[in-house]
Amino acid sequence: MTSRSTLPCSAELKEHQSRLQSKGLADLLQAGADRTARFTLQAAGLSIDLSRHYLDDALRATLVAQARACALPDWRARLLAGEAISTSEERPAWHTALRTPPADTAWATRLADERERMLRFAEDLRAGRVRGASGQPIDTVIAIGIGGSDLGPRLAVDALGAGSGPRLHFVTNLDPLELDSATTQADPARTLILAISKSFSTLETRENLQAARRWFAQAAPQLDIAPHLYAVSSQPQRAAAFGIAADRVFTFPDWVGGRYSLWSACGLPVAIVHGRAAFTQLLAGAAAMDAHFADAPLAANAPVLLGLLGAWYVNSWGLRTRAVFPYAQRLARLPAYLQQLEMESLGKRVDRAGSPLPYDTAPVLWGDVGSTAQHSVFQFLHQGTHIVPTDFVVVDPASAPAEPRAALLAAFAHVQADALALGDAALGAAAATRAPYARTPGGRPSTLITAPRLDAQVLGALLALHEHRTFVQSVLWNINPFDQWGVEIGKQLLALRTPAA
Questions:
Q1: Would you tell me how many other CB atoms lie within 10 Å of the CB of residue 167?
Q2: Which is deepest, 177, 208, 255, 373, by most CB within 10 Å?
Q3: What whole-number distance in Å separates Cα of residue 378 and Cα of residue 118?
Q4: Is 375 a catalytic residue?
Q5: From the CB of residue 171, how many other CB atoms can be counted at a distance below 10 Å?
Q6: Where are the alpha helices (DSSP H) in 42-142?
């Protein structure tokens, strides 16, 4: 591990920035009828259109050269092989092994056995075979967690639509409102309390779990709570110390980071609501993206090019934010999920050797669900003084042919992407009569990600795409994306200022 005084190829990339900005997006888009085809990538069923970026063949070649200069192929191989690349923690970041069986047969068997145990429990719960202390089947699950223990499972549960399992409530906030809402109509005799925590020491989760136990004791003092308490953790001994029986704790390895833990037993809420098949398909979609990331040439590798372009906008253009707009209500939580994935992973100020970085890293990520966002923040995107690279996530309307609003959603995403890129020029002759206050300059880059449908397999591919994109940027910036020491200082300060109980 060594420090860098500058990013590889930075001078050449700055020259590309000046050249392409002078040329303009409109000229790039009109340079050839085949541009969309040449700059659209296919990856694990997703179509990723990069044609509205400041991108041409010369820049793509330099970006690939930068990736090679940063040893991206080697780092990718080390990630996928389960090497200890989280240097500050001295452990792997091997979440891909949860969905792509590793060559290590011992680990492959161990992971498969625990996954099968979790899925079998979920199916028993869905079938009414899991019963509480009174012998009644469980019909309500309260899932308590925070951060990656909540964001990923909550996104996936919502994204897969109406479920067929027990009612599920997520509780993450210390604000009592969330737990109170979950318990308002719950029958303790038919309620399961599921704590999801990698460390099982997270204050918010422990406090909410204690509050849930108090609710149970007050609402059903005659019942033994033990059959109603379950947990998911990489530290089962801590769950046991909290009074949760060992056979009711589902485990995963400590080399699985919280924001990468959806693929582990932390995804149990997905299996509870949507079933074994959906969870298995979620893993299959992510595994397909793993294969694309591992095998596709760098110049045609979707997460690689997305990561390279993202870093280029930060370091050569000085752009400090990027936006994500899913044009599907079921993906409304995608921006929040990606905020943790990217900003917790890439919000670093020192390199792997501990030296201060001489260049910027993570941009601020923000967004909302389309088309709602068109009536709130798109004024800023189109006419504001900031250029914000934007991602549109669209579901192919052919997947819902009987619903005209699906076609409208997709059409809106496409025209917004064109309007960002072209500005008034997209209006043709009508642009000449626009007053100064109505004019839009264009020149705002965007990615259009089209999913063939919104199911578990496609969702898995979409989330894995962003995981690998994030990793690519970490390699370019020479940082460790798998630790989060900045999260700890608030906890430590609270501990110093709060008297021990």
A1: 17
A2: 208
A3: 43
A4: yes
A5: 29
A6: 57-69, 72-81, 105-126
User: In this structure, what are the phi and psi dihedrals at residue 121, rounded to the nearest 5 degrees?
Assistant: -65, -45
pTM (whole model) above 0.85: yes
Average pLDDT taken over every residue of the chain? 96
Sign of CA dihedral 372, 142, 110, 123: negative
165 neighbors 119 (Cβ within 8 angstroms): no
d(CA 52, CA 231): 46
Domains assigned to the chain: 10-69+296-484 (3.40.50.10490), 95-275 (3.40.50.10490)
**85 close to 79: Cβ distance less than 8 angstroms:** yes
- Name the active-site residue from 116, 386, 403, 491: 491
Is the per-residue pLDDT at 501 higher than 80? Answer: no
DSSP H stretches of helix in 316-362: 334-339, 345-346
Contact 305, 50 (CB under 8 A): yes
Provide the token pair at 308: 């390279």
Tokens of 21: 């900005």
Nearest in space to 300 (alpha carbons), one of 8, 25, 43: 43
Element (H, E) at 268: helix 268-295
Q: How far apart are the first and last CA of the chain?
A: 43
> Given 204, 342, 344, 467, which residue is catalytic?
344
Instruction: Enumerate residues 6+ apart whose C-beta is below 8 A from 497.
Output: none
* Residue 344 annotated among the catalytic residues of the structure: yes
pLDDT band at residue 429, thresholds of 50, 70 and 90?
Answer: confident
Please report, for residues 85, 346, 449, the alpha-carbon distance to residue 311 in angstroms, rounded to integers and kept in the order given.
21, 11, 19
Side-chain-side CA neighbours of residue 497 (13 Å): 6
**Own/partner long-range contacts of 31-35 (Cβ < 8 Å, ≥24 apart):** 31/56
Q: Which tokens is 377 given? A: 């923040």
Q: What is the DSSP string of 426-494?
A: GGGGGGGG--GGG-------EEEEEESS-SHHHHHHHHHHHHHHHHHHHHHHT--TT--GGGHHHHHHH
Supply the pLDDT for residue 203: 93
d(CA 194, CA 144): 6
The model's confidence at residue 31, banded by pLDDT at 50, 70 and 90, is: confident
